[in-house]
Amino acid sequence: MSAKKAARKKAAPQKAAPKKATPKSAALKKAAPPKVPRSLPYEQGKWASAFAPRAPGERRYWLVKSEPGVFSFADLLAAPKRTTCWDAVRNTSARNFMRDGMKTGDLVLYYHSNAEPSAVVGVCEVVREGYPDESAFDPSSEYFDADSVRETPMWYMVDVRAVEAFVRPVTLPEIKATAALQQMALLKVSRLSVVPVTPSEWEIVRTMGMRKG
DNA sequence: GCCAACGTTGGC
DNA sequence: GCCAACGTTGGC
């Protein structure tokens, strides 16, 4: 285990729920002049398809990671309305996926990272599209970021609701051993807590997770 | 615990 | 704008 895990703090007194994944970095940075959220050229990059205009009714798929010791899928199932805000993400690419890519109704694979075994354990659904992450504004939060101000929020989150628990975990070794899943962003991009999943990848992983035996 | 792969920061 | 130093994630 690594540093994280340290997370798990007071419950955010906010709307949805507790904290989750990505712990953060340290610290309180000294007061700095507000920065405008940087816009990366990701629209033209390898993730362009995640942000491209959608066909009418098109649903997209994603994967989010959380350490089970911090916020597990069982915690999500036990949360009010089986819903939580996916706060505390402090990585610009993951932020962009949440702020600009995810839409209500999209389905999300729930992955337990730093777990034994690390695995996809269930499915949740986006029920609220990107909105400012309140924890970044709160000086008492361990996720406080002085660079994020209400006028120009730096960090965003979405709300997700649990849809179904897999009947068995689809482990990382299994994913790595599946030919059709070799291109999954989960395997290709290291250390990103929110990543896109293609429709075929989603179908394969979900089928594996819902099949007994 | 180790370390690879990144992302971010800051000096220049 | 370059790039080295540093921090973080997360598999192993």
Layout of secondary structure:
Layout: H1 48-51, E1 61-66, H2 68-71, H3 73-78, E2 83-85, H4 92-101, E3 107-112, E4 119-132, E5 156-171, H5 172-176, H6 185-188, E6 194-197, H7 199-210
Parallel strand pairs: 1-3
Antiparallel strand pairs: 1-6, 2-5, 3-4, 4-5
This protein binds a DNA duplex (12 and 12 nucleotides) through residues 1-4, 22-26, 65, 67, 90-93, 113-114, 118, 172, 189-193.
Termini Cα gap: 30 Å
Tally of DSSP β-strands: 6
Secondary structural class: alpha+beta
With strands numbered from the N-terminus, the spatial order across the biggest sheet is 2-5-4-3-1-6
Describe this entry's structure for a reader.
The chain has a 6-stranded mixed sheet. Helices cover 21% and strands 23% of the residues. With 213 residues, it is an alpha+beta fold. Mean pLDDT is 81; it is low at 1-41. The chain binds a DNA duplex (12 and 12 nucleotides) through residues 1-4, 22-26, 65, 67, 90-93, 113-114, 118, 172, 189-193.
State the main characteristics.
disordered N terminus, 213 residues, 7 helices, DNA-binding
Summarize the structure.
The chain has helices spanning 48-51, 68-71, 73-78, 92-101, 172-176, 185-188, 199-210; strands at 61-66, 83-85, 107-112, 119-132, 156-171, 194-197. With 213 residues, the chain is α+β, with helices and mostly antiparallel strands.
